[in-house]
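From the pipeline queue, job 12 of 40. The input is one protein chain; the requested action is below.

Action: predict structure.
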Amino acid sequence: MTAPSSSIAPRKGGRWIEQWDPEDETFWKETGEKVARRNLFFSVLSEHIGFSIWTLWSVMVLFMGPEYGLTPADKFFIISMATLVGAIVRVPYTFAVARFGGRNWTIVSASMLLIPTIAAFIVMEPGTSFGTFLVCAMLAGVGGGNFASSMTNINSFFPLRKKGWALGLNAGGGNIGVPVVQLVGLAVIGASGGPRVLLGIYIPLIVIAAVLGAMYMDNITSVKNDTGAAKEAVKDPHTWIMSFLYIGTFGSFIGYSFAFGLVLQTQFGRTPLEAAYVTFIGPLLGSLIRPVGGWLADKYGGARITLWNFVGMGVATAVIVAASMEKSLALFTTAFILLFVLTGVGNGSTYKMIPGIFQAKAAAMGLTGEEAASYGRRLSGASMGLIGAVGALGGLGINLAFRQSFLSVGSGTGAFVGFLAFYAVCFGVTWAVYLRRPAGGASPAVTASEAKPQLSYAEV
């Protein structure tokens, strides 16, 4: 296998790696790991800022006092629209990596973050119409797409045995963009600065991320958009099952990240500064723990970790409901932060399940060696964008549920009861599809035509 210096060849549009085989242990040790880690680092940087811009309006609404003339329901709707666009654009962003190259698309997607940031800088003042704020929040949704392209790109760089760690680290580093923008917002509010100060901080950071991506990242020639794999992934029930479970984990994380500060303000009467002091803690811990979720999934099996994680999420949500009814701010905040931590663990474990599921399915179909590895890469790569997009829609559902709950009963209690029921369903689906062993010993996820050897998905 050629060394990195000879395998990375200049081509129109940037640096391209002509040969890439991370499953070859010799290649990985001698050349691949160094290149993969370098691309991972700068991918995390760009995705991190993308998450910050996507969740920018979770901070902007804290600046929007009575002089802006917006109700709590208006603010929940604004952040919901940012969530919606961020989910939708994940699908085209997934395919953009193969079309333009991982490095090249990182440059483009990072640069696009300037549009919502500059737009918000221009309009962020009292007297601006609700519709204008809504459009600016929707523009910020492009930051949500960075996750899909980054995960698809990094999935191509690492071998299967390292994917849980790499994808967890990539996603966790990106997710940290949520608490970071909230921490920066706290500092700005604490210094009596306005929202334009916060926006002015991020504009040069976006430029730096784009430039560093251009300087240090690579494209992989062999990564192609496989329309056949995409169609197969859409038809495969595992894609939709994992999308459903990802609604429960990542959908919860991003939905709560948008809503946490606003819930504290609206339900417990916290000032913007008091809310900002707490808002960042949950997303920060949830982001930091995500690689641990991937590591635990590598070690014990993603399905097992995911199953018990939903139990924990259910318990934390039940405590939140009790605290909400008792109007206990301390218990509510503690349980909410714990729930954030568990969403992070679940984010890592569910995403680790995806390549493992399709690798296991390849074995059940009788494929071996490189043929099985190739099948697993094709299907997992094709499904990741769709799973990420559907999962992010869970954030939209959470914010709309909060909006309706506050309109109906004046608190978020009703929404949390609904979330508790949903986590119970996620637990049941995880057990029934990936862990229950029928009398024959094969997983129910394997159809009769696929069960050439009998196989359980419990290890995915």
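Job complete. Residues 1-6, 9-13, 439-455 have pLDDT under 50 and may be disordered.
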